[in-house]
Amino acid sequence: MQSMDTREFGHTFSFSQDGESFLLDGEPFQIRSGEMHPARIPAEYWQHRIQMARAMGMNCIALYVMWNYHETSPGVFDFRTENRDIEAFVRLCQQERMWVLLRPGPYICGEWDLGGIPSYLLSYPDIQLRTDSANDPRYMAAVARYIRELSPRIAPLLVSNGGPILMIQIENEFGSYASNPAYLEEIRQLWIREGVQGPFYTEDGIKQLEQNRTNVTGGAIALSNGDAEQIAAVRQEFPAVPAMAGEVYPGWLTHWGDETFKGTAADISGTLDALMQLKLSFNLYVIHGGTSFGFYAGANVDADSGEYQPDITSYDYAAPISEQGVATSKYMKYRGVIARYLSAPLPELPKPVPTISRKGGQALMPELCTSIWDNLPAALPAEQTVDPQPFESYGQAFGFALYRKKLQGYRGGVLDIKDVHDYATVFVGEQYVGGVSRAFMPEHRAQPLNVTHHAPLALPFSPPSSLPDSDVSLDILVEGMGRVNYGHAMIDRKGILEPVTLEDAGGSSDTLTGWEVFLLPMDTAFIENLRTVCANPRKAGLFFKASLPLDTIGDTYLDMRNWTKGVVWVNGHNLGRYWNIGPQKRLYCPAPWLRLGDNEVIIFDLHQMEAKPVELARTLS
């Protein structure tokens, strides 16, 4: 048993001696938790979303802390700007009379880039992630630095100190990755060394838990995809501590290229009813998903095919509370199930957030603004890059990079970019000649763009007439999409990872060396400083701009169905990626990012050379 005596602050939280129950003030306590992530919700909406969870019958909020969202470069932490103030979020939970389950990683999965681990660690060619100091001290040194930074922020908010945090999770679903008790114990000891004594818990699928024994000393057990039967089974296997359904899935994640949004058919009414009837603790993953704004959406690799599967920008997840914060029909159904077992009536739902739309003749009509080619920074010198290197080798986390090679005596051929992560557009001189996608694209989308998948790219047999054939520039503009966040493919660097070869018409193959590299992070500073000139409006890689005048502010969605592939910014806020392979066609723009009067919308599209209308809509689909 692990007990935290908090009587001087009004509460105690502990585990019963027989491991049967969680105890609050010495009495059996059912944790009814809904998960949401501050990083995916504008801070202005945190309170509304917490209130929505409480009105559905929850008494607790579970949240991930995304390490890489707070430490973007080694030793540089941000727990204050925009929606990064974890302490403020937890205090809001307490203000709304909600307890908290804290899930700080260091690895969290969560359909988040690299599972929350900072990409700067990938600058080490031989790095090992999710392992103890004996196997890779560099990784664990970074973990220790993160926990040292986070601990003093968390300690005052523990239930033992009068705060709402009941338990802290150690890592996440480690049983699905490996069996290394020393690693989990090392993380636990890091917290203890910083004055955070727990209680702790772990999260795993039941089969992985039983196989790899990934619980921690004195820690509770949470089950992914858990239900009442699994809790009973774990109690037989691990009788010393309580168990809960740590991730009950009311929906599911969606990848680019899926035929439709996933999880919409899920119905957990029966699971909830059984958990409520038996007074078992649970966490809905997620009660509200929100949005993976910017470049933070993650990816998977299909276990059977090995295909790379990047996640869409929306994290709606078919959750009871929609991406935009609306109570769905499932919300009302589950609220009814839970309410039947509670003695006190549930709070009224908070008022919905206003929405706005503009369609038809009122749609935005962006205009060409500039091009990526007119905004290239100084190149890293060719002698520095014999072979192309990934973003991380150059200290870049997200965005794009341009790899440029001067070709002498060019006569066409077949270009083989063996390992591109994740999407490249290729140009010979000023001419677009095709693309390469790591992710599968439906044929009707790939063919018009001449985009290949796991195949070399045929280049035209003669250079454009405007260029001398003795000196042609080969440009490969690479977009890094989400890093893999689950499984053993997580060492997922971005850019061009292997040497590039060009085979001429005679079948002779030449490895291209000596590249210039232009780093294009597409961060706030880059977008703010765009030069508004465009030397060649017929060379793809263009920025478009529109002004959105508003006399009323509300949440909205930008409908990008007429565009191809790119990124949208509104008043400097990165709404995320769009891609016409779907199923997501609309990007969520929260009202706090808009203002009365004129609003600036900037679109970067990898392929589009003609502007198309952008309608505003009230819903994701």
Automatic annotation (TrEMBL):
Keyword Transmembrane (UniProt): no
Documented EC number(s): 3.2.1.23
Residues covered by the Beta-galactosidase galactose-binding domain: 542-599
Domain Beta-galactosidase 1-like first all-beta: 388-439, 470-519
One matching Pfam family: Glyco_hydro_35
Top-level taxon in the UniProt lineage: Bacteria
Segments forming domain Glycoside hydrolase 35 catalytic: 21-340
Active-site residues (renumbered): E173 (proton donor), E247 (nucleophile)
PROSITE patterns on file: GLYCOSYL_HYDROL_F35
GO MF annotation list: beta-galactosidase activity
Keywords: Glycosidase, Hydrolase
One example of a Gene Ontology biological process annotation: carbohydrate metabolic process
Reactions that this protein is recorded to catalyse: Hydrolysis of terminal non-reducing beta-D-galactose residues in beta-D-galactosides
Annotated InterPro entries: B-gal_1-like (IPR026283), BetaGal1-like_ABD1 (IPR048912), BetaGal_gal-bd (IPR048913), Galactose-bd-like_sf (IPR008979), GH (IPR017853), Gly_Hdrlase_35_cat (IPR031330), Glyco_hydro_35_CS (IPR019801), Glycoside_Hdrlase_35 (IPR001944)
Record keyword Hydrolase present: yes
Family of the protein in this entry: Belongs to the glycosyl hydrolase 35 family.
Name of the protein in its database record: Beta-galactosidase
Organism in which the protein naturally occurs: Paraburkholderia elongata
